[in-house]
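INTERNAL AUDIT FORM
Audit reference: QA-55
Scope: verify that the stored structure record matches its stored sequence.
Auditor: D.O.
Record contents follow.
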Amino acid sequence: MSSKPFTFICGEDDYLVSEKGRAWFAQQTKDIEDDLSKETIDGRAGNVAEVEDALNRFTSAVQTLDMFGGRKVVWLKDVNFMANSQTGNAQGTLDLIENLKDLLGTIDPSAVGVLITAHPIYKVRSFYKWVKANADFTLIEGGKDSAAGLAVIIQEECDKAGASITRDAVQLLIGKVNGNTRLIVEETRKLVTFVGTDGGEITDRLVADLVPNFGDADFFEAADAFYSLKLDWTLEALKRHFFTNSESRPLLGSLQKRNRLLIQLRVLMDAGAIRLGGRGIAKSDLEAAARTYGHHFGDAEDKSLNVFLQNPWYLGRLAQTAAKVPLKKLVDFQLSFTEAFEAIIERPNDQEEVCRELAVKCLS
């Protein structure tokens, strides 16, 4: 048992924080039979009044001891009012959190086990610094910018089920779910169920076929197929795309955005500013290149217009294509996309055929 009066788990990724908290709560309550001695308080709040209500219920739960003298465990879960948000920045919320210190500092962990899980959390606040010093503290790094961590989660799910997954499939899966940890777990379990547990293998083609695109990810299967430079796969993917979609503009837009990044990457690679290694592009190389060339990009906030706004893992994935395609051909791709846009305006009823012509022209 920790000598600290309470446990605090926080991070940016709600799934990782919640799973860590759930494991702690299960461990702490495994020998407690009385359900009244195992309390969870919802810490989600949309305004100061809801913050006050959640903290009042939490305080009451902590201060109400087990009637038979046994140990009690209380979990204030999914706290969202410690973030850099309108509710989190309200003076009323800040005062309530400041007052919370008085309660937390006096807890006897042998009588009451207390856990707080919070996501996201604003690290510049004094409460964050106080809690690091006074709690059994865990900060969980992760989320969409931690591709290595997400790959580990995918591999663990596959290992538990006795299935295998290729490296390309891992990368594609992370991209398709836009780095969302909860979706990564659910989609991996779905894929594992599909291939079975007798040594079945999950491939990138299987991920492309079974996993939809989530959030604002631009990982259309047809775009992935196009930039694999494989004409057969691209034509198959286009057929599937137009089976459920009549509009080609989002797809062409995705191709253009990715191509703009590829052009920037190829220029930087040709200049020797960055290089593609076994693990993709090193973050240090990207930061050094940004210091040298970043001023040329001005204040562009569109990620497809500024390669330095992208995370290194994603760029490493794109760089595998950039390394295979000369700069002139990438420029030709961009011109061909513009011509395809013009063609669908002239032939709005032939959008699939326009895209097929585009693929044949670029990849033959």
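Auditor finding: record pair retrieved intact. The chain has 16 helices and nine strands.
Action required: none
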